[in-house]
Each structure stands twice: as C-alpha cells, then as structure tokens.
Prior knowledge:
- The chain is mainly alpha-helical.
- 77% of the residues lie in helices and 0% in strands.
- The longest helix has 25 residues, at 41-65.
Amino acid sequence: MDLWLLPFLSLAGIAAGWLNVMAGGGSMISVLTMVFLGIPGPLANGTFRVAIVVQNITAVTSFRRRGFSDFRLSFSLAMAASVGAIGGAMIGVNLSGPWFNRVLGAVMILVLILMATGGNGQTSVQDDQPSPARNLLAGHLLMILAGIWGGFIQIGVGFLLMPILSRVMGIDLVRVNMHKVFIVLVYTCSALAVFASQSQVLWSAGLALALGHAVGAWLGVRSSVLVGDVLIKRVFMLAIIALVIKLIFFS
C-alpha cells in the first residue's frame, strides 16, 4: 500500500490499542480502517494480528512495572486459549463474506445482558491481597472457546474474555485486564503464524498499526490502573453497545 497511508493506520492504532486494553472491540477500528484504505477483509484479518502482538507486549510490560502480574495463572489460561486459537485461525484464513458480523453482534448482546443483569462480584483494585481465582477448570475450558473466536477473527474477543475472568473466575476488573493482555499476546502469536503461513499478512500495514497500538496500550494501562473498575465498566458497556449497533445495522 502507499506509504503516505501508513500514518493513518498508526493514528487508528492508538485508539484501537487504548480501547482493547480498557475493554475490547478496538480491533474493529483497525480492521475497518484497513478495509477503508483498500485492504481486502481477509488480508486485514491477518494483518492486524501484528499490531495485537506488539500492543500486548507493551501492555504486559506496563502492568508488570505497576506491580500487576500473575504469570502462572496467565500462562495456563493462555495455553488453553492457544489450543482454540490455532483451530480458529485455520477457519479465519478462509474467511469471506459479512455473515460473521451478525454472529458477533449476537454475542455482544448476550454479554451486555449478562453485565446489566448480574451483580458486581469484583474486588477493589486497592485490595493488595485479592481473593484467589475460582472455578479454574471452567475458566480454562471457556478459554479454549474464546481462543477459537480470537483465532478466527479476534474482533470483540475482549468481550468474551472479560466475563470469563470476572464473572466465572471472580477476578477484579483491573486484574482481568492484566490477565487478558497476556492471554491475547500468547494465543495471537499462534494465530499470526497460521495467517503468515498462508501469506495473509501485509507486514508494512501491520507494523504501522503496531506503532499506534503500542502507544494506545500504554495509555490504556495507565487509565486502567489509575482509574480502576468504574471507568473500565463504563467503557466496556459503551463499546459493546456501539459495536452491536455497527454490526447489526451497518454491516
């Protein structure tokens, strides 16, 4: 693609990286920007994985520097998600048509209902000794399913990971983001390898996006840690509503 278009991808990546760390759905920004600039959908689906890897390296490092890390649990969940992601990516390399948009919209509606009708159930970010994660078996099994979606299309996977980590496993929302960025980093490496093997990665566009995603991820971690659960939940629910409207009515 033309070099003068690459800065536009970086700017879009900043917004996408911030939203991905704070809640989810930011990948929609990246993919739509690439399609708008003339990159075919299937190629965009593989290309933006480069940015997701860089974004989450930045986010994991930033969380670690601020004292938020639990690599043992993050890694085991990431391995479960990677199993699903490889299978999902194999489907994704043959992806065509807009039908998956409405499937994603239906998933988002279910998640929104779950958050609107359920109790809070999270511990505060100020809790230096948070309660241990519960329902570990169920959490890992659900991670496999989330990984399938992440490998398949990635868009909206944060909306699946967050309820698994927060509602099923009982983790507070700031630490949910801590685990989420590590999980996505690991399984995206597996998915990216599948897309790259099928020549469905445009590396120049992917690296331009990656620059923006890295900046956005750094800003997202600061927002997540400094502000805590309240802003995260608001951003999360607003992002779901916006994404559902886009997918169902403007596909």
